[in-house]
Q: What sequence folds into this?
């Protein structure tokens, strides 16, 4: 148990540059988390499909006696999906092996090969915040979703690109196999 507590202490402070799981992503807007999808050209977006965590979320228990201790959720677990992401040494990959990056227009997408003009293609990590696992880029968990047209779809960015944008967190969702 001590190892687990120490592990989570490290995660809270520095984040994980590698995550040994396949995961999905969600865009947290207020108290609602929307499922993030990747389209054929590597762009990420979300619509109105919400995420509900499956029962039996991973958690750890504090040693007894602990007074007012709480069970802390580690990952929201979601069903298996053919789309997934993995993190290795600060580089984010999709199921095709394409690299997650912030391109010149600040959009978050996956490319193979990486675009030469990409602003960031490494520096990704998973951090813990308020009982959730969030995607972080160079220590920042603040991302933006910007409405793309009038069809209710939003694309993800690392900066606001206009009045159609608002801040979001990108939640890491562990896939259950």
A:
């Amino acid at each position: 148990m001590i190892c687990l507590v120490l592990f989570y202490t490290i995660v809270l402070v520095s984040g994980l540059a590698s995550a040994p799981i396949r995961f999905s992503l969600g865009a947290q807007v207020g108290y609602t988390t929307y499922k993030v999808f990747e389209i054929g050209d590597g762009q990420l977006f979300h619509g109105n499909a919400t995420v509900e965590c499956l029962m039996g979320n991973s958690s750890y228990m504090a040693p007894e006696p602990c007074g007012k201790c709480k069970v802390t959720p580690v990952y929201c677990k979601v069903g298996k999906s053919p789309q997934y992401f993995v993190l290795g040494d600060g580089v984010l990959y999709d199921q095709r092996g394409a690299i997650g990056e912030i391109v010149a227009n600040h959009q978050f997408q996956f490319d193979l090969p990486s675009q030469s003009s990409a602003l960031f293609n490494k520096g990704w990590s998973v951090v813990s915040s308020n009982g959730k696992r969030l995607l972080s880029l160079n220590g920042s968990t603040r991302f933006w979703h910007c409405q793309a047209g009038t069809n209710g779809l939003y694309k993800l960015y690392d900066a606001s690109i206009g009045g159609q944008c608002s801040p979001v967190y990108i939640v890491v969702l562990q896939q259950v196999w």
Q: What stands out?
A: The helical segments are 2-14. The chain has one domain: 15-58+75-176. Confidence is low (pLDDT under 50) at residues 1-14, 56-64, 69-73. Residues 23 and 63 are 29 Å apart (CA to CA).
